[in-house]
Amino acid sequence: MPADDLDLPRTMRALVKHHAGEGLQLDPERPRPTVGPLDVLIRVQKAGICGTDRHIWQWDDWAAGRIPVGIVTGHEFAGVVAAVGDAVKTVTVGQRVSAEGHITAGRDYNSRTGNAHIARDTKILGVDRDGVFADYVCVPESNVWPIHPDIPDRIAATFDPLGNAVHTVMAANVSAKTVLISGVGIIGLMAVTVAKAAGASRIYCTDINPARLGLAKRLGAHEAFNSAEGNEWMRTVRDETRGEGVDVLLEMSGAPQAMDEGFRTLRNGGTAALLGLPARSVDFDFNANIIFKGCTVLGINGRRMWQTWYQMEELLLSGHIELDEIITHEFPIGRYDKAFETMISGEGIKVLIDVD
Ligand code: ZN
Q1: Does 92 participate in catalysis according to the annotation?
Q2: Residue 52: inside a domain
């Protein structure tokens, strides 16, 4: 692309997937993205490390098959608008913004019928095109989300995963219902506080990590069970739900055993919302778990544009969502290796990179 004449540095720092193998590299002189007519250039302030970024760091089979070598990684962020293209009308320089990281041309069937989150041509920031672990990122105006003045950057940097949690919880309609959350990683923990804020009557959690289970209880889970210690918990949950099982299952683990136990603990006619991604095809009892159960199964991908974002903002402004214990660490971009180590080891939950 031709260089633009903006009064901004021509190069920037960026965390780049520099080779087909483990790790990332900090490039101190990556060319800054140029700004097309409909683009918004954002100076990144804070960015979150996601499970997706861990896959890219570790270069597992998924990453090797999907990620173009040379890409700037990262997709969760908060920043300030540094420049806008000539045709941009709704965003101004200096505005605090985040952005929906799923980018579509807006022309396919789902984009034109209110379901852009499952558009056929979706390109993901930091996966399919240059992302946010950099001083600057460029996104289309139509993907920009203004940050409410009462929401700080460290919270806004988690809109992407928090939006996954909000999308899952709201899709399953949890108000005055019993809920089982299987898997309390970052998004599962967020789902606990979101489900509580959204009026779930009782929240049960399962995981194999005692520390995360303890945090789930502090965030509002009625009970948190270690599923590595057997499945007696399933009887407990059924006993406490009139012998029926829970009204709603939010599957956040992608672990085959957790999926099976979760469905078996779901009452007949209940709703299961599935966000966790199994690593490979799963052997699953459709007859008992779905067909004879007569349950509703929802696949959850991304965030609804922009319903989820409005719901997320309202929930945050209500003061009922607790993220302080979920956002555990923050490192300057120069210490990116320590940031990834903290996230990958499990010592940190949501780890932020301070780019400013
Ligand atoms: Zn993410």
Answers
A1: no
A2: yes
